[in-house]
Structures are given as structure tokens and as C-alpha cells.
What we know:
By secondary structure, the chain is an alpha/beta fold. The protein has helices at residues 4-9, 21-24, 42-58, 72-77, 83-101, 119-131, 136-140, 154-166, 180-199, 233-239, 256-272, 312-324, 338-348, and strands spanning 14-15, 62-64, 106-111, 171-177, 210-215, 247-252, 289-294, 299-302, 305-308, 327-330. It has one domain: Homocysteine-binding-like domain (TIM Barrel, Alpha-Beta Barrel), CATH 3.20.20. Bound molecules: zinc ion (ZN). Residues 252, 295, 333-334 line the site of zinc ion.
Amino acid sequence: xxxxxxxxxxxxxxxxxxxxxxxxxxxxxxxxSPSCLLNLTDDGREKVMAHYENxxxxxxxxxxxxxxxxxxxxxKLANMNDPNTLWEANYNAAKDAVTVAGIExxxxxxxxxxxxxxxxxxxxxxxxxxxxxxxxxxxxxxxLNEYPTAESLIPGFKLQASALIEGGVRDILIExxxxxxxxxxxxxxxxxxxxxxxxxxxxxxxxxxSIMATMSFDAGNALRPSTFNGNTPIDFIDATYSLxxxxxxxxxxxNAYGLHQILLILRDLxxxxxxxxxxxxxxxxxxxxxxxxxxAGKPEMTASGPTYTISPKEMATIAVMTWEAGAKIIGGCxxxxxxxxxxxxxxxxxR
Length: 351
Ligand SMILES: [Zn+2]
């Protein structure tokens, strides 16, 4: 199987995949139930493998496992929160994705957010509120102990990462993060999983597992784009400066044009390179790379379900803009179809 490091060394963009949830929604029996539950049956696994194959046929060089929701917190909402289910949903997804990836393509293990608000974020919100002399937040947050610390999420993320890596993936994307504290916990968990797998001879000592990270910024506020939790692009660049991600960037957010704006901000921030920090260089890769996965616009509800407003032609134009602005890994998020990725891959083929 190809890995992200190899793909990054090649000239031109690395085409990633598009939306998993939108593509697998027709096969989900209960609306809102996580698509990773498909990985628990033979029939479901066939559908998911066909989905992975569609990315490969559309031109994706790398694609994600359908494990965005395959963590204990999201599975709990579907009353499927036992460790065996979690393990199987991730392990099978990785195994099937690696099979489809073959020699040429790269299967990437997907780790999404817990969906919880962590204590550190609430503490920061309280600080901001008190600095602004606002009582709104302070009234709502009665007891900080009700919120889990970011550190307490580590075992959950570690279980997911272990299952994905044991299933065969050697690249992980931590995505759609809204909290730098949670992102840090997920990253730490993946490193702990790698260490444990090596100690238990389930991963050879010289094998590398690369990690990428994206946060979801809303570019709606052009002056101060931020995540749902209030983290800004500079918070992200600063907090992840020395974490060793092979690629950092943004996914989803407002829409594809908004994400292009975010990329410009990230690129400018990266150029600043404060003198008190060592220049961030990957030992075998050189400078780091940006990964951008925009969604296909705001969904409009129609009789046949949500329809996304940005056409494949527009997605292709945005993909070229994104490449020209400095992104190396380009894919899509919510609503991005196989046709969108094919149009993006075609437009980028000559770059
Ligand atoms: Zn999305």
C-alpha cells in the first residue's frame, strides 16, 4: 500500500476523497446512525468497500476509512458503546480499506471528534467571558467538573487508533476538530497506541505511522474565523507547531470558498515562523504540507434529501485555487460526491 509520506514526495497534488456520510447515508437504516455500523455485517462491508472503490475510480490517491463516528462517545448515542463493537467497526474498516487501496493507493484511518465539550475549553470560555465582563457563560456553566478533561478522552481515542492500525492503516487523519485540547489528546492517543503496538510486537519497531490533523473553521466571520469552540487558525498553528503532523490544515467549515480563505491565513501564519521556535522540518519530507477538504456548500433540503449547492465544475475551480494557494493534499468534506472528486482530479491532473 502507498503511504502519505510517499505520495507527498511526488510532484503535484495528492487527491484525497470526498464525503463519507453523504455517500453511505442511503444504506443506513436509522437516520443519524453512524455509518461505521455497516462494518459489522458482511453485507454492510461490501457496500463500504464499493464506496472505497468509487473513490479510487474517481481519482483519489488516498481515501478515509468510514470511522469518523467510530469512537465510544458517538457509538454511545447509538447504544452500541461496547469495546468489542468499537474495535470491530474500526478494525474491519481499516482491513477493507487496505484491501481496496492495493499497492497504488493509500487508506487513511479516520478519527473524528468526540462531540463533547472538554473542561479546558469551558475554562477558556469563562476566562474570555470574565475579561469581557459578560455573565452569559458564567451563568450557564454551573460546575466545570461536569465536563470531561481532554486527557480523559485519551483511552477512548487510543482504542480507536489501535484498532485502525492493527487493521492495517499506516496513516491517520484526526479531522473536524473544534478544540485544540481535544486535538492534542487524540494525537497523544495515536502515539500511545503506536508505542503499545510496537511493545506488543503487533507493529514492527521500524514501521512509521504518520498523522495528519485538520480543524473545522467557520470563515463566516472574515475578521476572526474560528472553530465552534472559538479556536482561531493562529491557535491551531501555534498549538500544533511541534507535534510532528505530516500535514495540517482544515476541513468542512463554512464552504469551499471560505476554506480557501482559511488556507491563505494558515499559509501566512506558517510563513511568520517565530524566531524563538526551531524551523519546523520533517526529517524525511522537508517542510510540512497543507491538507484542505472543503464541503460542497450548505445543504438545501429537498424531497430526496439534502442537496449541496456547489457543482462539480465549481469544486474543480476551487480545487485549482486551493492548489495554487499552497495546499498539497486536496479532497472534499460533507456533500462532496464521487463526481466532484473526479472533476477536481481532472482539473488538477496537469498541475
Ligand atoms: Zn464536513
